[in-house]
Amino acid sequence: MGGASSLYPGAAGVYVPAAMHGFSYKNGSLYCEDVELAGLAEEHGTPLYVYSAATILDHFRKLDAAMAGVEHEVAYAVKANSNLSVLRLLANEGAGFDIVSGGELFRVIKAGGDPAHCTFAGVGKTREEIVYALEQGIYSFNVESEEELRYLNQVAGELGMVAPAAVRVNPNVDAKTHKYISTGKSENKFGVDFEAIDSLYDRAAAELPHIKLRGLQMHIGSQLTSVSPFVEAVEKVLPLVKGLKERHGIEFWSIGGGIGIVYKESFESGAEEWWTSKPEAERPLTPELYGREIVPRIKDLGLRILLEPGRFIVGNAGVLVTRCLYEKKGSAKTFKIVDAGMNDLIRPALYEGHHEIVPLKAPATAEKHVVDVVGPICESGDFFCQNRELPDFQPGDHVALMSAGAYGFVMASNYNSRPLPAEILVEGDTATVVRRRQTLEDLIEGEL
Ligand code: LLP
């Protein structure tokens, strides 16, 4: 992190992060912290996910510090990157975990995380998952419907237990993000209508003896790049949460995840100058701004505040390294065909996600060419960029797809019978294979 991970006041007195990620050129070669990516690609092959531990910790600590004015816990959203070593890193830092499946709970426990610091979200929990989570003693089931709350009561009753629960309120706030990752509007499948919450808590208290109403949860969407939807949601839900505390003695309010990260210019955003050169209004959302806007509004509530960030913690901490296989010059376009595909990183295909493409060898000239960078999969949607100006790279050269630490490997599949890539965690000058590359034998394991 160039030794510059401390905060300092920017031009308008706003605290800006001094460094956003651990990827930079040294002597013309791209490094993750103190490890040269070209060496990793050589040794472990490509496609290859590489994560910077310092960046993950730096982001966790910044958000934690930004919320210091209120009793809180940062519950990392495991879905963003569930590698055991990433979870262990965060467990050792004192993070809680927001999980969405029995599988994620299993991973957290294997990584040394404490189930008592886990919240369990999701609209479709199965009986097996509920039983497993009850037996492990999780902190709260974040429930998404009255039907689920009643079912949770029934299952807990059968086990002679009481299930701690929070209902997810849908505040009907526009998160102004991609339609596939917006969750806080009435037309989304998530949560219970704002207007229906009070009566649901009253009914639950009266009729469901195996439920302990422990909190209230909300989450309005992912990749929010402005603080105003968060503020709007907090202000809207505040009176509701106060009432629930008075009438039902709830102890926590989870204000969800969703803090967005820099995708465009994400490489440049690793440098301090990039942040200071931006006028305040044009700066991406920072944890400091989030904390400054949110904490004063909730600090006198007397509730424990939970946050569920995923992307913010790991997104800019990871890259996907891929090798150029061919250059194909068509009549209309030039295609750079690389060895990573949409099965390895699906965000461009699924959400029109933008990932910067940075050569591992620093470009010798400022010259750029308009190209499509595409994968080997038999789908037209298998591209990482279209008509983008990029510095030259040739077959045999490697490039890094930036900001691939969140919703990268976790969404990878074996489509086209392609083995899953390896994952590497870098800590200073040490690189550890935290998941080995799949083999062809792995592909057919369990099949007849
Ligand atoms: N809490 C709940 C209830 C969620 O549904 C999510 C994300 C999070 C927390 C964490 O959100 P984050 O802080 O990471 O924005 N695959 C998509 C993103 C899907 C997000 C789903 N829910 C993508 O690649 O953009």
What does this structure look like?
The chain has 448 residues and is an alpha/beta fold. The protein folds into two domains: 34-52 and 316-443, Lyase, Ornithine Decarboxylase, Chain A, domain 1, CATH 2.40.37.10; 55-265 and 284-314, Alanine racemase (TIM Barrel), CATH 3.20.20.10. It has helices at 37-44, 53-66, 84-92, 102-110, 127-136, 146-158, 197-207, 228-248, 272-277, 287-298, 311-314, 347-351, 440-444, and strands spanning 7-9, 15-17, 23-26, 29-32, 35-36, 48-52, 72-77, 96-99, 118-120, 140-143, 163-170, 192-193, 211-217, 252-254, 304-307, 318-329, 334-338, 357-359, 368-374, 383-391, 398-401, 422-427, 430-435. The strands form four sheets. Strands 6, 16, 17, 18, 19, 20, 21, 22 and 23 form a nine-stranded mixed β-sheet that branches. The chain starts with 6 loop residues before the first strand and ends with a helix. The structure holds ligand LLP. Ligand LLP binds next to helix 11 and helix 12.
